[in-house]
Each structure stands twice: as C-alpha cells, then as structure tokens.
Amino acid sequence: xxxxxxxxxxxxxISHRALMLAAIASGPSRVRxxxxxxxxxxxxxxxxxxxxxxxxxxxxxxxxxxxxxVGLRGLRTPLTPLDCANSxxxxxxxxxxxxxxxxxxxxxxxxxxxxxxxxxxxxxxxAMGARVELxxxxxxxxxxxxxxxxxxxxxxxxxxAQVKSLVLLAGLVGGVAVSVEEPEVSRxxxxxxxxxxxxPLRRDGARVALEPVQELAAMDVDVPGDPSSAAFFAALxxxxxxxxxxxxxxxxxxxxxGFFDVLRRFGARxxxxxxxxxxxxxxxxxxxDVLVAPGGLRATDVAAHEVPALIDELPLVACLATRAEGxxxxxxxxxxxxxxxDRITAVxxxxxxxxxxxxxxxxGFVVRGSDRPLRGTVRTHGDHRLAMAFGVLSVVPGHxxxxxxxxCVAVSYPDFWDHLWQATQR
Length: 426
Prior knowledge:
Elements: E1 5-6, H1 12-23, E2 28-32, H2 38-49, E3 64-68, E4 82-83, H3 88-101, E5 104-108, H4 111-114, H5 119-127, E6 131-133, E7 142-145, E8 152-155, H6 161-174, E9 178-181, H7 189-196, E10 201-204, E11 207-210, E12 221-222, H8 227-239, E13 245-251, H9 258-266, E14 269-272, E15 280-282, E16 285-293, E17 301-302, H10 314-321, E18 327-330, H11 343-353, E19 357-361, E20 364-368, E21 375-378, H12 384-394, E22 400-403, H13 416-423
Parallel strand pairs: 1-13, 2-12, 4-5, 8-9, 17-18, 21-22
Antiparallel strand pairs: 2-3, 5-7, 6-7, 9-11, 10-11, 13-16, 14-16, 15-16, 18-20, 19-20
Helix pairs in contact: 1-2, 1-7, 2-3, 3-6, 5-6, 8-12, 9-10, 10-12
C-alpha cells in the first residue's frame, strides 16, 4: 500500500539551465529549489572556473542561491581543465557557452562521461566557426575554442535537447542568429527559459530560431519538482495493491510528461491537480501536483515518436513491464545506448539476471510480464537511472533484488533511498 504525499527534488534539467543563464545575465538572479546533486554541482563548479559569480552549493536544504551575472561577454578562459564529472548536460551545454564566449577550455569528465559521444557537439560548433578537438573515440577530453563567427541552421539527426541547447546558447552568447531543426520535438526548457527572459525566439513545430540580443535579463527562478524523479514514485504507486500517492509541485512541461501518459496506458490512475493551463507557472514552466493510484497493469507499446518525452524513464518502463499482463515493446530508443551506460543492454541483462523475460532490440527492448517473484543482483554500471528503476522494483513484496551500487543515485537524487523508504512505510 502507498499513501501520503511527497515532494521530489528540483528538476535537474532546469537546475543546470537556471545556473547557466543566471551566470551570464546582466544583474543578480535568485534560484530557489535548486537540485542539490552531483551533476548540478558540476555545472556550478565549471561556471566558477569560467569566472562566473556562482556561490558554493552546500546543504540539501539550501533555500535559495543568489548569483551575480557577469553578462554575455563576461566569462574568461579558465586556468585549469573543466571537470564535468558524470554530467553530459554540463559538458555539452557549456561547450556552447564556451564557444560563444570566445574563450578556450579543455572539458574533462569521469570514465563514464569520457566514453559518451561528443561529435554531436563538435559538428554544429565547427559549423559556426569554433574549433573543437575531441579525445579518443570522439569523446572527452574535449578542447573548445571560440569564438563563433557566424550563425547556422542546424538539422539534428536525432531529437536531442542537449544539442539544440548548445546551439542556442552558442548563438546567444556569441551574438549570432541560429536555428535548430529536429526530427521530433525534444524537451524545450532552454527555449522556455530564454523566452521568459525576453530573448526573441520563433518556434515552428520541431524548428526553433533565436535572434541575437545585447544582454540577457536577470530573473528569479523557482525550480519545479523533477518529473523524471517523480516518475519513480509514480511507478511505485502503480505497482502497489492499494492507496494513492500525491506528488507535489511537479514540473508538467509536455515535453517531459510522456511517462505519465504511458503509465495511464499501463492501467494506473494519474491525475494532475489542475490542467496545465491552470497550473502555476515559473520561468515559463508549468507546475502541478500529480496524484497516482494503482490499477491492474497491462502491457503497452512505446513508439519512436514518444521516446523524446520519456527517454530517461524507459528503464523504469521496462521494470514496470515485468509486472504487467502481456508483452511490452519499446522501439525507436537507440539513443539509450549513448547514456551513462548502454541502457538497452544493461536493462535487458539485468532483467534476465533477476528472472524476468526480456529481449534486446537494436533500438529498444521487449519485456513479457508475469507474477513470479524476481530475485538476483543488479549491476547498475554506476547509472543512476538504472539504480532507481530497479530500486523501485526491489520493494515489491516477494522480490529479493540487490543492487551492486546504490550510491550512484546521488547524480540526480541524493535522497532517493530515504524517500523510497518513507513512501513504503505509511
């Protein structure tokens, strides 16, 4: 049974962007509800190394952060390499900021991040006149040298909010007009947050164009709860036998709520406390409470066009599918292979290791549901999304699932295990 209410931590994507935009704004900004995770600490550390006035992040309960913006032309070449740790968002978005600022920086990361593909960063920046040198196998370390000398219309081969954002940020900081076109609309936090600050943007379907500005307005931001973090507790409620769980203050940006749509198809009840047009808005982002209650789970399929809106939640979809009647198939999700781990192979291997029936596809997976208990050890590969997805499955009565690295959740949700324990003790 689940019952009660929970407030998940601040949205990771918005936290990254709130720090970056406040750092290059003209004047002071305040950020409230900032996620206190390892990835967000990496962004703050990189911005400080570039000369931005970002205070040290300390304490999970930091009520607000005051940031003195240095302006679009105020960043400087760092004295040391920029350590992005495990944060792909930091490495890719800051590459756009660095190129636009006309400085030179060497971008590094941990072993996992160093293996992730960075040619998707280098190509659009090179098309704008910047110079990018990649490490072995097109990964990190990566040297980025600005300035950008001209704008670009970039056609992205896959829907990627990180690629789209780095082009927009390079154009913003470098003072050139840019546009990006994607096969599907990816999450649009960067566009919303720029538009809220008065940056001229034109959006037409999966194409967005930015016109240069002389300065970026400062703005206070309240970071909403992360829908990707809320998804794990929504899944917990869906797997329960009875009760309901209220998730408070969750961001319900439509480019991020695909998991809630899939959860409804699985059979759970998912209600927003108010329609999006009646929700509270902060810096262009809709916010709502989300009420989730269990239902008899039945299999569903996830198609390629749905993937951008729930890419981070697909390991969780696989775990839910083990308890759903029928066969669940996910396709068009090849981008999962370029995350913190190869999330297709890792998910399928781990499902089989604990006794589930799963099959790997080139761009997704097939999971056949059953009611038999699942037992075994999960290899997380240091991937926070895998750890949390299988962590939810581990608390289902009758299961005996162990994780080899529970601590890796600190990348996005440091208090996850405490919150999971609280939600199952009511």
